[in-house]
């Protein structure tokens, strides 16, 4: 869009000029609009509308340049967050135990801080952003309640998953999903008044910068901690465990608040943050340099797939690597995208667009390949708490990459950036919805009826706790095999039926015949097989 021409035709229309400005913000072209206003004001200094806009934008620019960190709030909030981390890192009172039958002692699995770190940090970050940036307290409070509720929900419902492997999988997944939800909560606060794609994209870029800054703090803090402990070791002084936790957990708890305060100006919306200097410029430069390298690596990788086609189908670790790579590619695409075309030359903009399209197209092929592999492994074995979320992430990634390509095909040369903003915005919403769905649904989709399980013999309860479904039972004195389902044993009529349902012999557990007879009979497999024989 030629803002110079548009602005010059609206010298007396304040409402239309405001609409053009909002469109420019959504498109990430605020700087181009500002330049058009500057030129119009210079050519017609007596025009009151141009003068008002000139001073409005100048004030906004001056505010961005005067970005001052409110250390009076940052330091106490960071210290309190760090002390909470230090307190919760004590694994004696704050260790999460897996829930088994009452007569089996629970097993320690992970410290509570592993689940609670992100929601707690998000709460302190939102306090800082709300107080200093004068955000709306009701939004911050609502987001805080949702995060607290999600954390409590995970801690209260994970035993519903029943079997030890499924409880472990759910809790491990929540170490990724709760941070994602916390990040989305902070984003909800920041874009509550600015929900257009341009501001959502600006939030994504600033998030990357905060993560990079946090990583730098982790490196510096880690080096400081190692040197400090080493100095005391050289004097044969062993620092108490409580002091070491203060360095590691307490120092780590300070990082989210400090990193956010250093990078983000809470007084300005996401789209009006500074992006052309300091760490913003460095991160963008590095990711844009990586763009052609990523195209080359993906091309080479795709060329080798036919020679190792079965690798992700047969090897779980390879499939995990695929999914990690795809998330990294999505982050690369976001980071390499400019906030405004005024930040790059027209030539660089054209090459960036080509690079983004190339990476998206190649990553789409790999995503389809990875989705096929995980669906194959699921069909061959079973759907598990681990597989369901990653199937969803793959589907979302495929949809996002497809939308990027579709909107780029449709977009004109001067509007390609807005197409990316729309795609990233839709992807962010989809990621958030899927994250919340997995937090809520997994314990019930893969759970067991605890009352039914407690009514079964102890040996059967032990098997339910140790093994995921399907649970197949038999006893030494009988050839019959039964499927345990809903607290009942379902007789499987024949070996052919057993194999047709995809069962394997390694899943068959041999228990005492008296225990097997104590399990109530259910509907046979198939239902018309007749009365089930007793073991």
Beta-strand share of residues = under 5%
**Based on DSSP secondary structure assignment, what is the total number of beta strands?**
6
Mean pLDDT: 85
Category from helices, strands and their pairing: mainly alpha
The end-to-end distance, rounded to whole angstroms, is: 79 Å
- Total count of helical runs of at least 4 residues: 20
If you compute it from the alpha carbons, what radius of gyration comes out, rounded to the nearest whole angstrom?
29 Å
Lateral strand order in the biggest sheet:
5-4-3-6
Unreliable stretches (pLDDT < 50, length at least 5) are: none
As an assembly, this protein is single chain
Secondary structure: helix percent: 55-70%
Main β-sheet description: 4 strands, mixed
Shape, please? globular
Order of helices and strands: HHHHHEEHHHHHHHHHHHHHEEEHEH
